Each structure stands twice: as C-alpha cells, then as structure tokens.
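Next comes this protein:
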Amino acid sequence: MNVEYKIEAGTVLLDRTHQAVMFCRNVLLLSEIPGTLTIKIFKAIGGQDLLGDCTCDGIDAYEMRLWEQSLETIMHEMVHVMQYANYELELYLGDRAYWQGEMVFGFSYDTSPWEIEATRLESILVKNFLTFSA
C-alpha cells in the first residue's frame, strides 16, 4: 500500500505522524496490499469531537482524515485501514454495515465491533511504537 499526504494550508505533517503511519503499515501487514492510502491533515477545529476518520472506495483507495495527529488517533484510524483492506468492514449509508461476514444494523459508535477492536488495538500499537521507536 502506497502512502501519500495532502496537507491543508497552515498545517504541517509531523515527522512522528509519518513514522507512526509507516510503523502501522508494517505491523498491520499493509505494505503488500495493493492501492493507495491518502492521508489528509487538517487544522483542528475548536469544539469538534471528530479527531479522525477513515474511508475506503471498496477496492484499493483508502483515505484517512486527521484533525489531530496524536498517536492514539493515527493508530486507531490505521486499524480501520486494516479492517477495510482485509474486507472485514464496509460501512453503508444509514445504520448498516458489513462486519466480518455479517450485516450489522442499528449500531452506535460505542457499540460497533470495529470501533471496539480499533480502540483495543490502538493502545497496543501505541505502546509498541513507543517501545520500538525509543
């Protein structure tokens, strides 16, 4: 998977952000996945709860949007990239999704299994990144 960045005017790509993305690309076995991950860095918006998100075109174009370049946010969104790349996750408009071979309906952010997995794995990834990058 190739990685490219698009940076909003007035923001910068932190070197640590790139290191964290490449770490996850390797650890989550995404380096050989065909396609491109485009990471868009935006200015933080005061009062905004959304720190990052991730989408996929269903084939080989992945997009991560970051309003915060914290390790937790980066690692969390990279888990979603992995979920899309492994065909475990596909989100649809409304309240339905495809998750690990089953249709899921009526979920919330806090109860959706892909968010639970991403939250669990983000802390493991952050810990390993800090250990191996020290």
In short: The two ends are 26 Å apart (CA to CA).
